[in-house]
Design a protein that fits this description.
Immunoglobulin-like, 38% strand, 12% helix, four-stranded mixed β-sheet, 12 strands
């Protein structure tokens, strides 16, 4: 009887826990796979950078917010994707926080992702 009660307590110790899971560490994990597709493009040409992840099933997140940096002129952020037609060349580095990422019904800790926009121009420059 004591073994049954102890087993029940051990199994249910995590039941109802609202603490998000941490990243699994080195190697493949769901959190480390969250990223934006390429931010490289050309001035005057449409660009779209989508948020992706490797989850063996459905995945979602609560919201995404820019924490640092500026978006290239002509690009907008709709809370999930960056898109638009950049009208200036250069490099921009942004930090985006992904709140409450979820994979297969399991909610993980918030994740900060960096995206580098590298927009090449087509005009000649005199240096």
């Amino acid at each position: 009887m004591r073994i049954s009660i102890l087993l029940f307590v051990l199994l249910c110790s995590g039941c109802g826990s609202s603490v998000p899971l941490e990243d699994a560490g080195p190697g493949f994990s769901f959190l480390s796979s969250i990223r934006f597709t390429s931010g490289h493009g050309w001035e005057g040409q449409y660009l779209r950078s989508r948020l992706t992840s490797r989850c063996n099933g459905d995945w979602s997140f609560g919201k995404a917010r820019i924490m640092q940096g500026e978006i290239p002129p002509g690009i907008i952020f709709d809370g999930e994707d960056f898109s638009g037609t950049p009208y200036d060349d250069g490099n921009w580095l942004l930090q985006v926080r992904i709140f409450e990422p979820e994979c297969n019904g399991v909610i993980y800790s918030d994740r900060d992702i960096w995206i580098n926009f590298s927009i090449k121009g087509d005009r000649k420059r005199n240096y």
